[in-house]
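[step 3/7] inverse_fold.run input=structure_tokens len=228
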């Protein structure tokens, strides 16, 4: 009598994790978030709130909005990019603004799907609807629209533990080499900018950066230095 063989179970290979470092203060992070669904078929996107101002301070940089010429260019470019994507754009009533409360509310959401939904709603509120993310009433309304308990979430955002978690997340991002938002990270490799989604997809398809060439290029000495 022929022995029966056990059916082979379908084993689903887990999708690689794609970390998405963001701060709703950044219009480019908004543009990237608007396109992040392109990564869903090939990667598991995890939204990582970080304080952009903390990244800038750690690396001795200034934000685009702090340099008049760059601020003017950035807003023109963002409007242009939004137009190309067919996305409505109004922009927040002030910029830069203080995103800490919004970031802490994101940090307080441990469920990755709820965090993603709320983060996307924050981007839409600020950059598409022109709402003020420094206003608790606006944040409460956005949270409620996402099916979240807005009063509880606002209260958690004021919890010292949540404040510490956001600070630690920002420090961890800095240690990983993150210097701006939006930044995607795949297995330790960083992709900075709203226009890097195609590069992330290329990486997820199995392509790799030539690390030997990178090491060779980085080892070359400088022959000029800008005066401080």
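[step 3/7] decode complete -> sequence:
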């Amino acid at each position: 009598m022929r022995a029966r063989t056990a059916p082979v179970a379908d084993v689903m290979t887990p999708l690689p994790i794609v970390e998405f470092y963001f701060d709703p203060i950044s219009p480019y992070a908004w543009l990237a978030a608007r396109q992040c669904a392109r990564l869903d078929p090939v990667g598991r996107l995890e939204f990582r709130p970080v304080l952009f101002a903390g990244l800038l301070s750690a690396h001795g940089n200034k934000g685009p909005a702090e340099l008049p010429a760059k601020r003017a260019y950035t807003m023109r470019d963002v409007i242009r990019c939004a137009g190309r994507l067919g996305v409505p754009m109004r922009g927040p009533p002030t910029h830069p603004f203080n995103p800490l409360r919004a970031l802490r509310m994101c940090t307080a959401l441990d469920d990755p799907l709820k965090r993603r939904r709320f983060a996307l709603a924050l981007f839409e509120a600020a950059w598409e609807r022109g709402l003020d993310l420094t206003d608790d009433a606006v944040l409460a309304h956005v949270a409620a629209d996402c099916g979240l308990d807005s009063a509880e979430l606002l209260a958690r955002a004021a919890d010292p533990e949540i404040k510490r978690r956001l600070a630690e997340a920002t420090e961890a991002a800095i240690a990983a080499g993150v210097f701006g938002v939006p930044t995607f990270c795949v297995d330790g490799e960083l992709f900075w900018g709203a226009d890097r989604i195609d590069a992330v997809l290329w990486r997820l398809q199995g392509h790799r950066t030539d690390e030997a060439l990178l090491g060779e290029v980085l080892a070359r000495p400088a022959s000029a230095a800008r005066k401080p």
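[step 4/7] annotate
Residues 1-10 have pLDDT under 50 and may be disordered.
The CA atoms of residues 80 and 86 lie 10 Å apart.
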